[in-house]
Write a structure and sequence with these properties.
Elements: H1 6-11, E1 20-25, E2 28-38, E3 49-55, E4 57-62, E5 66-70, E6 74-77, E7 83-98, E8 114-115
Parallel strand pairs: 1-8
Antiparallel strand pairs: 1-2, 2-7, 3-6, 3-7, 4-5, 4-7
Length: 117
């Protein structure tokens, strides 16, 4: 067991939209990311994805609507649901998803996560 300081972990992030794994529980990973601007449409065929806004605001677009998340709010995106995150200003998010989930979507197997030691 090791205590994790989320603020310190965020300060180590170098690139936007590149999640960093900060903890693992069972078959799930807790990931953090700094985001800004538009991400691309994608889906995760076999796993739900939990978004939590730590700082800022994040809009998640779906094919039929959008949901705006503010600090302290969470949203679970069901598996196989097309979604596209967007942050007008810098935003810090925490994600919880299956460890084998490719953050960029199931079609992109080239993304490499930064793994915390």
């Amino acid at each position: 067991m090791k205590k994790i300081n989320i603020k310190e972990q965020f300060s180590e992030l170098k690139k936007l939209w590149l999640p960093k794994v900060i903890a693992r529980l069972n078959d799930y990973e807790v990931r953090i990311a700094q985001v800004q601007g538009d991400y691309h449409w994608h889906q995760h065929l076999h796993s739900d994805e939990l978004f939590m806004v730590v700082e800022g605001e994040l809009r998640i677009d779906f094919r039929d609507r959008s949901v705006l998340l503010k600090e302290g709010e969470i949203l679970v995106v069901p598996k196989a649901t097309d979604h596209k995150p967007f942050a007008e200003k810098p935003c810090r998010i925490l994600l919880i998803e299956s460890g084998d989930t490719i953050p960029t979507g199931d079609e992109d197997k080239k993304n490499i996560l930064e793994i915390s030691k």
